[in-house]
């Protein structure tokens, strides 16, 4: 063993600090700097070498960020940042799918730097192209922080569950929506009211559309799909619906039936035709399902492997600390040398050139139970009209509840749960009701999450 | 980028299959073979090269294991297995802390083979020595399957949470105990009765002592502690109590107070003196804690990092499929080249020579709330005696319930919950009651898990 030992010692002694450059010093960027400074000693022990910040770049040099940047070189120009000789890893925290973030990422790779990013929109839209460049250049590109904040779910899928054919992944991928839904649940208040509070508290953006329309969760889901199923990212095919139409009455109704409402992102291989089904939509989640107990801004992801069975990863889905934790975990991986050999070459668990191109699966022949809520005029014959449409479309009703008045205009709420059946049948039933004068608003359909 | 690309392509083309040898072909071993065969294609894509079984070794060549071993070389002698030229990784699934498993592990490392093991007892007792040898030899040693079956929690701590100072880890680490406790909870039946059923169903060993006395969970906890806190494995210092004394009445009592009972392994740095506190003990877990919903043979581990916040990893804690999933994940890591550089050198997240030697922390000044259950003679003055002892030791009682008869001998059950206070005070109170003729059995103390 003598020569082995000598070799190892030499390698260890020769390991220089890993030098990072930070582009974007907002909440998360400041968190990364605080983390790297606070935990410097243990990071060096775990990474096998110190991790040091060489340079930073942000819009306003003089803004108070709660961290002292004076020890780090300042670049006004991101292009110059990526070109610096004293930088091994470029950390992109600028945000936005395109524009400066994408330019920086491309520049970093072109200069042979490793790329670490928290930018889910950029990865969802341009991750394949970036990975192709990174793999061709032999540099690692990592993005743990882009999905589910501090939860190491990308590592969990890419490495922890690597031995498994993944049959399904699903989970709570947007903390803002989960905060709003669980607050509505706890307080009985309405969506708009809770959203305003979340914005005031900083849990929701001033423009909350990306979150509440499900786009943010869809970005994350499409990234997880690529890793889990070995297929090219297909964000455009995620069937996406948001939470803005959910009423306090829906939550109360779901509760009385034994469910909570959660925005669930789900991807699975279509059992019939083999395509990939991806959906982000509010679901009814049974009380005894692990995801029913995920409250506030917490995220949780379930991966079902053909040998592992069900794996659950849960934690803080956002925030400067958790996101910084994921960013620095990626940097430590690079410092440890995971970029050696095959690793730099397998950004989405396998090399990007080897990803398949699964067709989007139609949702029509999916089987499931659904919650359907109508707001209807309070007059005779309305229930008969709705139930006739269900019958004609072949939808079997498990339970139906008609509840008081929904508003001041003489409207009432009718909620039903269907027996298991094809989603296409529900769609067909609603088509039959389209334009009906009995309906005061378009019906809301939510799938019921199975076990 | 041209030369980078050429280099990468060459490296990929040159990668030969990774050849493994399996020692021990019981349930898990057969699961590993089934997995490697079933998922061969996707494993090769993810690992960057095929993973093939070269040779196997087990006690009885002719036993029916449900898998065909005829394609693999058979060795009767484990020493010969470890010495084979056509083997890169030795997978130890023999079991037992010492004896043949340890001999094999040592031989494998001495022959420059990577070692993958599911053997928690061996790692808890000899992991430091084995890691020192492996690191000196420059070969990776991995043991994801030794803790919590298919859940990638070692990877989660070692890599996913690597940027964090871990403040506390705790969780449900033994599926047999959790199956028994959750079945007692669901059915109201007694411990011995449920244990017998678990044994009949194969969920508990014929000799269940390792599981029900907490030893198995303590092995796993001591391994997690080393990784989380960067300290030498100290299995001997785990303060361990099992579940055999828990009565159906305790579970009913806990339920009425808003808790379930779970065997919890917990490790944290002592806030006062800086030592390491490690305990495996049944705890009362509040209904709204994530661990309260972990039922059956499921395992779940919480890690609290100073930046990540609370991370939860949950899944199947045992079984051939999940355990094989973890074993093969380790093999894929090795195939991918994670053994390069620093990695082979950081078995417990940091090199074994750099692990600190934290002193065991005394439990005396820990603050907490406790559930204390007495079985007492049904006669006047008993409650006064118990409450006086509590008062004299400075234990403040939050609630006290005296319930009917515990047995046929005129004994009654008294259960109390204390206000937060030092554990030492409870110990002192029970010392004052030692030898009292009022007590029909030694009192049972369980800590209440905080949030």
Oligomeric state of shown chains: homodimer
Q: What CATH architecture of the largest domain in chain A would you give?
A: 3-Layer(aba) Sandwich
| CATH level 1 name of the largest domain in chain A | Alpha Beta
Principal-axes shape call of chain A: elongated
**Name of the CATH homologous superfamily of the largest domain in chain A:** NAD(P)-binding Rossmann-like Domain
CATH topology assignment of the largest domain in chain A: Rossmann fold
Largest sheet of chain A: 10 strands, mixed
Layout of secondary structure:
The structure is a homodimer of 451-residue chains.
Chain A: H1 2-13, E1 18-23, H2 27-38, H3 40-47, E2 51-57, E3 73-74, H4 78-83, E4 89-92, H5 99-110, E5 114-117, H6 120-137, E6 141-142, H7 153-160, E7 166-172, H8 175-187, H9 191-201, H10 209-212, H11 215-229, E8 239-240, H12 248-257, E9 259-269, E10 276-286, E11 298-305, E12 309-316, H13 320-336, E13 367-368, E14 370-377, H14 382-393, E15 397-405, E16 411-418, E17 421-422, H15 423-433, E18 444-448
Parallel strand pairs in A: 1-2, 1-4, 2-3, 4-5, 5-6, 8-10, 10-18
Antiparallel strand pairs in A: 7-9, 7-11, 9-10, 11-12, 13-17, 14-16, 14-18, 15-16
Helix pairs in contact in A: 2-13, 5-6, 6-11, 8-9, 14-15
């Amino acid at each position: 063993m003598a020569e082995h030992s000598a070799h190892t010692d030499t390698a260890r002694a020769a390991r220089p600090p890993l030098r990072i450059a930070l582009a974007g010093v907002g909440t998360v960027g400041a968190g990364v700097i605080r983390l790297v400074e606070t935990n410097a000693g243990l990071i060096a022990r775990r990474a096998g070498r110190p991790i040091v910040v060489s340079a930073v770049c942000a819009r306003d040099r003089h803004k108070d960020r709660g961290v002292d940047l004076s020890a780090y070189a300042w670049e006004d120009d991101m292009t110059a940042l990526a070109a610096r000789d004293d930088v091994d890893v470029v950390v992109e925290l600028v945000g936005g799918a395109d524009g400066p973030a994408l330019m920086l990422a491309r520049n970093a790779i072109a200069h042979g730097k490793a790329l670490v990013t928290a930018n889910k929109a950029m990865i969802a839209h341009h991750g394949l192209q970036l990975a192709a460049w990174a793999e061709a250049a032999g540099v690692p590109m990592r993005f743990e922080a882009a999905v589910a904040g501090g939860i190491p779910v990308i590592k969990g899928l890419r490495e922890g569950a690597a031995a498994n054919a993944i049959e399904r992944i699903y989970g709570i991928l947007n903390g803002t929506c989960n905060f709003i839904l669980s607050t509505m649940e706890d307080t009985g208040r309405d969506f708009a009211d809770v959203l305003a509070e979340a914005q005031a508290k900083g849990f929701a953006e001033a423009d909350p559309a990306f979150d509440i329309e499900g786009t943010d969760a869809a970005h994350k889901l499409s990234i997880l799909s690529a890793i889990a199923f070995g297929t090219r990212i297909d964000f455009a095919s995620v069937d996406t619906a948001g939470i803005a139409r959910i009423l306090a009455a829906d939550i109360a109704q779901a509760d009385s039936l034994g469910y909570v409402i959660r925005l669930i992102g789900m991807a699975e291989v279509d059992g019939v035709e083999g395509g990939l089904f991806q959906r982000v939509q509010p679901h009814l989640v049974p009380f005894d399902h692990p995801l029913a107990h995920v409250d506030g801004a917490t995220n949780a992801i379930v991966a079902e492997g053909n040998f592992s069975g069900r794996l659950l990863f849960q934690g803080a889905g956002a925030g400067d600390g958790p996101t910084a934790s994921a960013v620095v975990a990626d940097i430590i991986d690079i410092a440890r040398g995971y970029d050696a050999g095959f690793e730099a070459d397998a950004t989405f668990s396998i090399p990007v050139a080897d990803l398949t191109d699964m067709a989007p699966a139609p949702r029509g022949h999916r089987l499931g139970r659904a919650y359907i809520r109508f707001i209807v005029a309070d007059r005779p014959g309305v229930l008969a009209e709705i139930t006739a449409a269900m019958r004609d479309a072949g939808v079997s009703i498990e339970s139906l509840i008609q509840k008081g008045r929904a508003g001041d205009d003489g409207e009432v709420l009718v909620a039903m749960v269907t027996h298991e059946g094809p989603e296409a049948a529900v769609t067909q039933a609603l088509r039959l009701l389209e334009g009906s004068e009995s309906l005061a608003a378009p019906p809301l359909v939510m799938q019921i999450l199975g076990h």
